């Protein structure tokens, strides 16, 4: 009777266990709570933050102080008790960056986006988004959902605003 060596099977088993899960494997739990297409806010299951799904886009774009004043006025949007919104910190904004960027077709052009296309459908990415995190005298951090880059902007610069609670 011939004895088989178990070592090759052990090595193969260890290699298979060490391989990462497929990138398209569903998250359990998902990052965002269930929502309807017309829902105005969405809750992040991990951070427990409640986000405005459709950000303020104005022409001209909002300077930092306008965004900082706008968010607390959204009591009807954030219906929960103490429903005042606020500008997110840079760290909070970074939690919205999509790990797998995608392209969307808008106004006859392909636009790269680094934000969840279902949870935040139609997010404009032409300008960065304000945070409440100071970046020096008269400057605040902002985040681009087009490139994923952080940038320090003078507070008089126009940018988009997405409020959080």
Commentary on this structure:
15% of the residues lie in helices and 24% in strands. It is built from three helices and seven strands, in the order αββααβββββ. The protein has a three-stranded antiparallel β-sheet. A two-stranded antiparallel ribbon has the order 1-2. It starts with 6 loop residues before the first helix and ends in an 11-residue tail after the last strand. Residues 14-25 have low confidence and may be disordered. 22% of the residues are buried. It has one domain (38-154). The protein has helices spanning 7-18, 64-70, 90-94; strands spanning 41-43, 50-52, 97-106, 109-115, 129-134, 139-143, 150-154. A hairpin with a 6-residue loop joins strand 6 (139-143) and strand 7.
At a glance:
The chain is of the alpha+beta class.
**Which bin fits the share of residues in helices?**
10-25%
Q: How many E-type strands?
A: 7
Count up the domains: 1
Q: Spans with pLDDT under 50 lasting ≥5 residues?
A: 14-25
Q: Which structural class is indicated by helix and strand composition?
A: alpha+beta
The biggest sheet, with number of strands, parallel, antiparallel or mixed sense and barrel status, is:
3 strands, antiparallel
Strand arrangement in the largest pleated sheet: 5-6-7
List the main descriptive attributes of the protein structure presented here.
7 strands, three-stranded antiparallel β-sheet, two-stranded antiparallel sheet, alpha+beta, globular, 165 residues
């Amino acid at each position: 009777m011939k004895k088989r060596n178990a070592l090759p099977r052990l090595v193969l088993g260890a290699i298979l266990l060490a391989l990462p899960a497929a990138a398209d494997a569903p998250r359990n739990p998902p990052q965002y709570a269930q929502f309807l297409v017309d829902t105005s806010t969405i809750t992040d299951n991990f951070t427990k933050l409640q986000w405005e799904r459709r950000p303020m886009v104005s022409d001209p774009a909002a300077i930092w102080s306008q965004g900082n004043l706008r968010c607390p006025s959204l009591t009807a949007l954030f219906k929960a008790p103490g429903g005042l919104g606020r500008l997110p910190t840079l760290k909070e904004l970074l939690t919205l960056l999509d790990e797998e960027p995608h392209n969307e077709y808008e106004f006859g052009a392909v636009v790269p986006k680094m934000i969840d296309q279902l949870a935040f459908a139609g997010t404009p990415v032409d300008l960065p988004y304000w945070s409440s995190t100071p970046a020096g005298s008269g400057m605040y951090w902002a985040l681009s959902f087009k490139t994923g880059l952080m940038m320090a902007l003078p507070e008089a610069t126009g940018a988009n605003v997405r409020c959080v609670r």
